[in-house]
């Protein structure tokens, strides 16, 4: 499906897009899924949060992996009501910056429909009205069957 230049980026995408099992866990609370992300990707997430993986923005698949790492994984890694809860959203701005760059470069047109969703979600997650409106534009007219 998607081939990354960086093997670590490939590992992120292989995990995230591994089939129906993963799709079921994307938008649900699943402690086992969250624990697997923590065990496999916490260190990589921390590197991305520190800006060490910004070079992943150079190619569409690697950029998608960076956005998943910065936007989706923290929602799983820090899904808690405890002191780490704010970390779930701490890298939203980095994810949004990468998503803007990806869309400006036309990366979304290079990716399968289901993958595009994860380029667009940082706009939906933003608290800025203009970003929310852009989210609606990006998602408008997209096929519903991508989730099947």
Which segments are poorly predicted (pLDDT under 50) over 5 or more consecutive residues?
Answer: none
Number of strands: 0
User: What is the molecular shape?
Assistant: globular
* Total domain count: 1
Order of helices and strands: HHHHHHHH
**Would you tell me the structural class of the helices and strands?**
mainly alpha
What's the assembly state of these chains? single chain
Distance between the termini: 17 Å
Question: How would you describe this structure to a colleague?
Answer:
- The protein has helices at 7-16, 20-26, 31-49, 60-77, 92-104, 107-110, 113-125, 129-139.
- The protein has one domain (7-147).
- The longest helix is centred in the N-terminal third of the chain and has 19 residues, at 31-49.
- It has 148 residues and is mainly alpha-helical.
- It is built from eight helices and no strands.
- The two termini are 17 Å apart.
- It is 64% helix and 0% strand.
């Amino acid at each position: 499906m998607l081939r990354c230049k960086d093997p670590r980026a490939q590992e992120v995408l292989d995990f995230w897009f591994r089939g129906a099992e993963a799709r079921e866990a994307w938008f649900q609370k699943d402690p086992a899924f969250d624990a697997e992300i923590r065990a496999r990707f916490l260190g990589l997430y921390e590197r991305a949060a520190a800006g060490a993986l910004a070079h992943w923005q150079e190619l569409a698949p690697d950029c998608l992996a960076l956005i998943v790492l910065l936007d989706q994984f923290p929602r799983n890694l820090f899904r808690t009501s405890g002191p780490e809860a704010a970390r779930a959203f701490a890298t939203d701005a980095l994810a949004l910056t990468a998503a803007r760059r990806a869309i400006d470069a036309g990366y979304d047109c290079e990716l399968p429909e289901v993958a595009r969703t994860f380029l667009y979600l940082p706009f939906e997650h933003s608290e800025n009205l203009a970003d929310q409106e852009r989210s609606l534009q990006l998602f408008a007219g997209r096929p519903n069957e991508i989730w099947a």
